[in-house]
Amino acid sequence: MRQMTPEAFVENLAAAQRGDEASFTALFRATQPAVLRYLRVVAGHRAEDLAAETWLQVVRGLSSFSGAEPAAFRGWVMSIARHRWMDDMRASARRPDVALYALPDRPAESDVAASVDEIITTEAALALIARLPRDQAEVVALRFIADLDVAGTAELLRKQPGTVRVLAHRGLKRLETILQAGSPADQL
Amino acid sequence: MATQDGWTGDMSDHLDVEDTLVAAVLAAATAPAEAPLPGEAAALAAFRQSHRSSRRLRLLRPADNLKLFAATLCGGVVIVSGVAAAATGTMPLVGHHHSSHSHPANGHSKTPGPAGDAPGNDTSGSEPGTQGKHQGPAVSDLARTPGQTGVEQGQGVCGLASDSKCQAGQHGAAAAPHGKSSAAPNDKSAKADQRAGSRKPRPGTRPSTAATPAPSTDHPSRAAHPAKTPSA
């Protein structure tokens, strides 16, 4: 959603609600990466299935969505994704093993600090975040990947904004600790 | 106010990521995705299907309303026209045979009643529109007169309605010749000719083919009958 301006978002949303496929595709492409990455952090290998279920529900409720801000739409989609994930968790009655699934090609074990941008893939970064405690991982994913603000994250998680701030801070500190303990590849 | 994990109590939305490694991890996690995105085809198919069905529903609704409106309009027209026809008396109704006598000039075919079936019970000779109009109450009173047999009542009603030209109840023994004919009672052929020839078409009614003897009809009484309108 970061690539879409608010004006473009309003136009695309109105056109998609009228049935324009190109506009819906634009909304999908702007939102789906964050949805998929958030679900990879919290749901692991079930992410793509849950994302598909999420978009089915988004399609059903698109005509009734009335928000005018891109962040509101993003938060709405993330909320649907989170509910799908929680339903899936209740159904499976077990916590998915997110850290050991779908590991990307292992990054090179050279100088991590110097070339971290080149060696850490998106999948590796998501796997690292997924190693955090669940509430911290979820807040980090929503705050930094889905680009939700504190209020939106707090509303989605039904937590106080202060709690969200604390969880985000602790998550980042823990991530730093993990990274300092060894290279990302070693951590993975 | 620093805690064990370094939380300083900063309540701003902005969160600085000072560590380069953490920043690199977050940058990698938010890197632009490459198309095609997984699930795009499925989401687009769901979008197409959902919108097609909703569009179909939107298209069907006006058509349904139109059909409903047309059906209501047709039903209303039928009901109103039926009521109007019944109110103006233009509708031939069973049991209202005398109503056609009341409106002889309305151009509609006459539905003869049971009394009109009898040979010689012809009211065509009377003045149209004057006789039947005022005989309804009298005929009704006569028919309800107690102490008379059905034959007598029928005879009286028939005679009143036909201006004493009716021969009902006489069983062929008519005391007077039918109509204004002065032919002898036993002169049957002359009587039939007279009966057939004396008919004149009433104004406002179609000229009946039965008024003239049909060439293929060998029975004179059948030929002399007026055209019957099928009654229920």
Describe this structure in words.
- The complex is a heterodimer of chains A (188) and B (232).
- Helix content of chain A is 70%, strand content 0%.
- Chain A has 188 residues and is an all-alpha fold.
- Chain A has two domains: 100 residues, Rna Polymerase Sigma Factor, Chain: A, CATH 1.10.1740.10; 86 residues, Winged helix-like DNA-binding domain superfamily/Winged helix DNA-binding domain (Arc Repressor Mutant, subunit A, Orthogonal Bundle), CATH 1.10.10.
- In chain A, helix 2 runs antiparallel to helix 7.
- The longest helix of chain A has 23 residues.
- Chain A starts with 5 loop residues before the first helix and ends with a helix.
- About 10% of the residues of chain A have low confidence.
- With 232 residues, chain B is mainly alpha-helical.
- Among the domains of chain B are: 38 residues; 55 residues, no CATH class.
- Chain B starts with 19 loop residues before the first helix and ends in an 8-residue tail after the last helix.
- The C terminus of chain B is likely disordered.
Secondary structure class of chain A reads mainly alpha
- Percent in helix of chain A: over 70%
Helix content of chain B: 40-55%
Overall pLDDT score of chain A: 83
Overall form of chain B:
rod-shaped
**What is the gyration radius of chain B calculated from CA atoms?**
46 Å
- Greatest interface and its participating residue counts: A-B, 56 and 37 residues
Oligomeric state of this protein: heterodimer
Mean pLDDT value of chain B: 63
Taken from the alpha-carbon principal axes, the silhouette of chain A is globular
Radius of gyration based on Cα positions of chain A: 17 Å
Point out poorly predicted stretches of chain B. 99-129, 179-186, 204-232
CATH superfamily of the largest domain in chain A: RNA polymerase sigma factor, region 2, helix turn helix motif
